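Supplementary Methods S3. Complex input for the glutamine-bound model.
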Amino acid sequence: MATVGVLALQGSYNEHIAGIFSSSSFLFIASSISLRRLGVKSVEIRKPEQLLDVASLIIPGGESTTMAKLAELHNLFPSLREFVRMGKPVWGTCAGLIFLANKATGQKTGGQELVGGLDCTVHRNFFGSQLQSFETELSIPELVSTEGGPETFRGVFIRAPAILDVGPEVQVLAHCPVSSNSTLHSNSSGEGKEEKGAEDKVIVAVRQGNLLATAFHPELTSDNRWHSYFLKMAGDVEGSSSSIASIGVDN
Ligand code: GLN
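Predicted complex, serialized as C-alpha cells:
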C-alpha cells in the first residue's frame, strides 16, 4: 500500500499517525485509531518536496491560522494546491477542512490563506469556543454502507467549523443536528446563525472526488471507519488515475 502523508506543522497529526494524544487534546480517549494501527505506512510532511513521495495526504485538525502561517513559512501552499489539482486524495479534518475549503468565513478569517479545491464555504468556530466543544452521534449512511459497523459515528467536535454551503459536485456525507447541543450558535458574533437562518442542522462531512473533509476528529476515537473509508477512497483514486501515474510521483 502506498504511503500516506500527514501534514505535520501543528495540531493532531500524531494522532493520525500513531494514535498518541498530545497534551493539547480536548478529550482523552484511551485508544484512538491511527494509520499505524491499521498497518499503513505514513510520513510527516513539513516540506514541499516531501509531497512527491506520498500518494495521499491527511491535513489534521489544529488551529488553521497558525497552520496557515507555518505553511506559508515553509512555502507549502503552491505544492499543496498542486497536490489537490493533480487529483491526489486528500482528507482534511477540522482545521484541515478549513484548509481545503474554497472560502472561509467567521472569526478572524481575514487574509487567511487556504489551499482550496473543495467547493464549499466553511464557517470557522461555528459551534462556539473551545469550552463549547462537544461530542455527538452522527448518522452517516455512506460510511455505514461502505464500512459497516454501528449505525452512527461518534463525532468529536473541538472548536469545530461547519460547512454553510456546497457546490453541485460536492456529496454531503453528514449533518450535525443543531438542536443536539445547547451551546451551538453561541459564538458572540452570531454570524453562523444569521447565515444558517432557521435551519436546524449543518453540514459536517463532505466528499468531492478526491477530497474528503470532516468538521470533527475521527482520529480521536477508537472507530477506524473514517480512516478505512479514506484509505479505500485513496486506493480507488490511485487505481483509476492515469494522470497521477504518468507523472511519476505515485508510490
Ligand atoms: N477552530 C479551529 C480553526 O479555526 C479548528 C479547530 C480544530 O481543528 N479542532 O482553525
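Residues 4-245 form a domain with the Rossmann fold fold (CATH 3.40.50.880). Helices lie at 13-17, 64-73, 77-85, 95-100, 141-147, 191-196, 225-240, 242-246.
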